[in-house]
Structures are given as C-alpha cells and as structure tokens.
Amino acid sequence: MAHLLTKAPENIASRKISECSSDWAGHLDQMLAEDGSCADYSRDRTAGWLFAEEQAGSVPVYRCYAEDQQTHFASAATDCEGLGAMEFVLGYGLAP
17-69, pLDDT tens digit by residue? Predict the structure, then answer.
C-alpha cells in the first residue's frame, strides 16, 4: 500500500491523517480521515501525514467503503481491489 510519514514534511503541503472509529448499532467501523474531519466518528489518534499532492516516489492512498461489510479501509488501487467503492483520495504516501 503506502507508508505514512511520522511528521509533517517541511516545505511540502501535507495532510495530517487521523484514525477514527464508530461503534454504531454494535458494529465497529474504523477509518482514516484528514484531521478534524472524523464526522460522527471518534478521533482515536494521529495515524501520520500524507503528501497533499503526488510527489516522486509516492503512491495515492484512497479511502474505500465496503457496503456489504459496512466498513472503511484504505487502498492504493482506484478500484479498491474489488472489495468496495472508492470514496476519495486521502493523499499520497511513500511507496513501499
């Protein structure tokens, strides 16, 4: 997939990414979101930083949703590996 940065890079636009969770109707869902946008989910921790724009040696990180499992996940594939639907690009992480 991609590696998140452990701190914001200097002189390059980045996004602070949070890990968020929700236990609605007894179903735990966890997702990654830009800091401050966990919506109705609880912010658990800082997951790391992603570049805001594509950089050399970076890959996109997409937030995906699997309707059948009612859960979010992250993927480097626009088709979310056939496991769900892509919601949007979270940012760009370091290629593995």
Answer: 999 999 887 789 999 999 999 988 999 999 999 999 999 999 999 999 999 99
Query: pTM of the predicted model, to two decimals?
Result: 0.92
pLDDT at 4: 97
Q: What are the C-alpha distances in Å from 34 to residues 16, 39, 42, 69, 90?
A: 6, 10, 13, 23, 7
Q: Give 90's contacts (C-beta < 8 A, 6+ positions apart).
A: 15, 17, 32, 33, 34, 50, 61, 62, 63, 74
Contact between 44 and 19 (Cβ < 8 Å): yes
66 within 8 A of 84, measured Cβ to Cβ? yes
Sheet arrangement for strand 71-75? 27-34, 14-24, 42-51, 85-94, 58-66, 71-75
